[in-house]
Amino acid sequence: MEITDKKVSLAKMPDGHEGAGFFATKLDDAVGLARKNSIWPLPFATSCCGIEFMATMGAHYDLARYGSERLSFSPRQADLLMVMGTISKKMAPIVRQVYEQMAEPKWVLSMGACASSGGIFDTYSVLQGIDRIIPVDVYIPGCPPRPEQVIDGVLKIHELVQNESSRRRYSEDYKSLMESYGFESGK
Ligand code: SF4
Questions:
Q1: Confidence class for position 11, pLDDT limits 50, 70, 90
Q2: Residue 142 Cα, ligand 1 centroid: separation in angstroms?
Q3: Phi/psi of residue 4, nearest 5 degrees
Q4: Which of 61, 109, 115, 185 is placed for a possible disulfide with 83 were both Cys, Cβ 3.0 to 4.6 Å?
């Protein structure tokens, strides 16, 4: 996408039926469309990847264009946990606690090599990937990833959000996923 492009395009309408004065679609599609375009991220930044995220929020890359200008530093009002940077084993319980405090539905994005796999820090003190403690929806590779990659990761989250069934969080699969991480259940 051309960053300097000044054109504003409307969000794509979900499939549905249209007539004079009405448009009908599935509830899931309408909810998915609204959620996807108003994701509030919680940035959990511990090191250099966080700086790259700051650039992503700045005027040039401007994550606000995707409905995410409102960062949430409270887990209770966040939809997307973005973990960026090295997570030490001492820090791991805090990441879990923040995740647990977020209301459903919630998504997780792991940014950079450190958050995704421990990166170059294959040591006794560093967690070798946050998916050892919480479920992750999208991984962004790189050390550090460029802002374009962060935007790409957020757009991948958008795809998941748009296409998620409203029943997923009540499903047995989701319940087992949560239980496999030691959380009670989704909802
Ligand atoms: S992945 Fe690289 S840039 Fe990101 S926190 Fe680790 S060392 Fe820093």
A1: confident
A2: 8
A3: -85, 0
A4: 115
